[in-house]
Amino acid sequence: MTAQKKIKQPVGTGRTYRKRVELLRLIDKIKLWPSRKGILHGIRSIEKMGDQARITTHCSKTFVVTNSRNSRAARWLRNKWFKQVCGVCKIPAWKLEKYSATRFKRHYGSALLDKDETSP
Fold it and tell me: The dihedral of CA 66, 67, 71, 76: what is its sign?
């Protein structure tokens, strides 16, 4: 008899976040940014300035974004819409796998609140 090992998939792989999380909290957690051309960039730094933030990518692009739940970038991140990955940013394969395993649900998951904040 041949002994075949069954490969089990780990239970609970991936993360689950709330669907309507603010953009700055989501970007601060996953460190990815979808450009308007559909290129997925890695984020080097986020400098918060009230309701806006200055984002610097690994390919040295800097821009200012407004915190919004239903912006283009927030929708693209939740739906995982992108055409390709930036070759200059060099996002590692493990990060892309983790991002693809991330789920966004309406009534379940982390709201990405700070430790000193209470849930709304």
Answer: positive
